[in-house]
Amino acid sequence: MRHAFGFAIAAALALGAGAATAAQAGQTSDDVVLQWNDIAVTTIGAQPPFPSTRFMATVQLAVFEAVNAITGKYEPYLATITAPPGASTEAAAITAAHGVLRAFFSAAATTLDQQRDASLALIPAGQAKTEGIAIGEAVAAAMVAERTGDGSTPSQFYLPTHSDPYEWQRTPSCPTAGGAFFHWGNVKPFGVLNSSQFRADPPPALTSDEYARDFNEVLALGDINSPNRSEHNANVARIYANQPPHQGWNSVARQIINTRDDDITDTARTLALMNMSLADAHITVFESKYFYRTWRPETAIPRAAEDGNPDTAPSLFTPFIRTPCFPGYPSAHGVGAGAASRVLWKAYGRHHTVTNSHPSVPGVVLTYDDLLDIVKDVSDARVYGGIHFLTDQDAGEHQGKSVAQWNLVNHLRRR
């Protein structure tokens, strides 16, 4: 198994055993792709989760496009870059990732330039390196141009027009501006045709048995003082509340890929498909969220006398986790888990030993050997946190899988 990728270690590995194994198979090591995936996640940092997936998708598609322009193994994404076959794929990957990140995060330019220079220093000087650098720079510029004016700015907010049962209302965590990311369903997707292509089916009726089941489950498990939530369940809720999807799922991907010795183009493709599917899933979920505009448990439980369901009853309720300021159905965490897990499963299979942790929950490490167990924990975490009904999670997971499957079938296909 290869090391986890710290910057200096990852750069050195390009000349180490992993690279040698790939070279023996007539391939180029994927080390720089993993290295710059890690750098991208770190550079993006604590941005809101939905813009973060847009940034990551742009970076990873640029890396794929630059490498694939040289190798030609798959259909291109933009199809605007031509490259000589002898150009360095590693130099192209490095400069493509660097160029996109520098354009989006100019405040980090000095650090990014140092990381680029250190990565490139391990590639022998010559025409191949020079051509690879030129290709990466051209692709980065093309990808940034592709995302300019894509609807991700300016921010827009939603104010409810009535307070009927089931209608989303601002919770105490909301600013006076109203529901956040109201515009996100209008962002141009990376792969799917439009944000309503995979709109979720309608949520269950307020009077249904399904709604009552979900209501009473959140009431029992999600209140801040609930005696029914174990410490383990509380830790799961805390980790997934604090870890944005682009951090968690790219970490899972790197852990899996680090056990392999894949060709640089194959790894670049998988990371591009996973991150574009994450981004498209979040664009899709916000179209559905603001189409249905369903209330959160924090609103629903105190107002249960208004829902017409004989199996629910009003109660005081404070969620264990801070409620996000936008409608509940479907779940954004659920849609991301569905999308990312589908791409990784299709690429590498379902069963892998991976871990997950977050500094907000010191000393706690979650260990998994099944991608679907991660998806389940992501879903359960939102119920334990008191911020989602289980139906929100199930609908999001299904929606995310549909988005990912579309991208897998229709984009970056093998030639």
Question: Can you give a write-up of this model?
Answer:
This protein is 54% helix and 1% strand. The chain is mainly α. α11 runs antiparallel to α13, α11 (264-292) crosses α15 (390-410) and α13 (332-348) packs antiparallel against α14. The two termini are 30 Å apart.
Task: Annotate the secondary structure layout.
Blueprint: H1 7-13, H2 17-24, H3 31-44, H4 49-71, H5 89-104, H6 109-120, H7 127-147, H8 209-221, H9 231-242, H10 245-257, H11 264-292, H12 297-300, H13 332-348, E1 354-356, E2 366-368, H14 371-384, H15 390-410
Antiparallel strand pairs: 1-2
Helix pairs in contact: 1-3, 3-4, 3-5, 3-10, 3-11, 4-5, 4-7, 4-11, 5-6, 5-7, 9-14, 10-11, 10-13, 11-13, 11-15, 13-14, 13-15, 14-15
Q: Report the C-alpha radius of gyration, rounded.
A: 22 Å
Shape: elongated
Q: For the record, what CATH class of the largest domain applies? A: Mainly Alpha
So, CATH architecture of the largest domain? Orthogonal Bundle
| N→C terminal distance | 30 Å
CATH structural fold name of the largest domain: Vanadium-containing Chloroperoxidase, domain 2
Helix amount: 40-55%
In round numbers, the mean pLDDT is 93
The largest β sheet comes out as: 2 strands, antiparallel
Number of structural domains:
2
How many distinct beta strands? 2
- Across the major sheet, the strand order is 1-2
Q: Point out poorly predicted stretches.
A: 1-25
Going by helix content, strand content and strand pairing, the class is mainly alpha
Strand content: under 5%
